[in-house]
């Protein structure tokens, strides 16, 4: 996963590389503990907690993490998981080709207009680049209205509220066709 994804004019190149839990832990720690990342639910995490969490993901055949690069510099995090085995087990009936996704844009003091939307578009394009992916599944916090709007912009359709152990979430789905229609509009 290191393809360059075309982005909105003026945003630059967005690429993904596999996350290295040891080398990237300090970078991620700064991102996930930042006040703007409250919905990531790692506000009080120590460096070792972040390292441990991403070591577990690296060892998990059903969960993968990637560092997103903006013009070669780390700028976002993307996780993909198999919802039949992680995160949503018992909360909905997974279908063949379902892929779960989380993303986090690194906090910055110099936001770039349209950047977060470009990131979620690039993440979705990367997930759908795999012909086996039929539908992307997300479960953002019910209160995360900004992400709900971003999800809608790339084609996600909310299905229902669900109760996860750590939060109330909005279970939403996006098929390849819904994504393509949303981003070509």
From TrEMBL:
Matches recorded under InterPro entries: Acyl_CoA_acyltransferase, Acyltransferase_MbtK/IucB-like
One Pfam family of this chain: Acetyltransf_8
Residue span(s) of domain Acyltransferase MbtK/IucB-like conserved: 17-64
UniProt xrefs under SMART domains: AlcB
Pathway participation: Siderophore biosynthesis; mycobactin biosynthesis
Positions in coiled-coil regions: none
Role of this protein: Acyltransferase required for the direct transfer of medium- to long-chain fatty acyl moieties from a carrier protein (MbtL) on to the epsilon-amino group of lysine residue in the mycobactin core.
Protein's UniProt name: Lysine N-acyltransferase MbtK
């Amino acid at each position: 996963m290191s393809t360059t994804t075309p982005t909105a004019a003026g945003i630059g190149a967005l690429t993904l590389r596999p996350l290295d839990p040891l080398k990237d832990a300090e970078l991620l720690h700064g991102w996930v503990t930042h006040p703007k990342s409250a919905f990531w639910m790692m506000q009080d995490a120590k460096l070792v907690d972040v390292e441990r969490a991403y070591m577990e993901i690296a060892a998990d055949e059903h969960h993968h993490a990637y560092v997103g690069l903006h013009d070669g510099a780390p700028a976002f995090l993307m996780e993909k998981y198999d919802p039949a085995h992680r995160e949503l087990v018992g909360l909905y009936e997974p279908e063949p080709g379902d892929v779960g996704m989380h993303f986090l844009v690194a906090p910055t003091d110099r936001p770039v207009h349209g950047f977060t939307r470009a990131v979620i578009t690039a993440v979705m394009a990367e997930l759908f680049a795999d012909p086996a992916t039929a539908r992307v599944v997300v479960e953002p916090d019910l209160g995360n209205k900004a992400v709900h709007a971003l999800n809608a912009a790339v084609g996600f359709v909310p299905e229902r509220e669900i109760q996860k152990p750590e939060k109330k979430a909005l279970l939403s789905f996006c098929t390849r066709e819904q994504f393509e229609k949303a981003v070509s509009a």
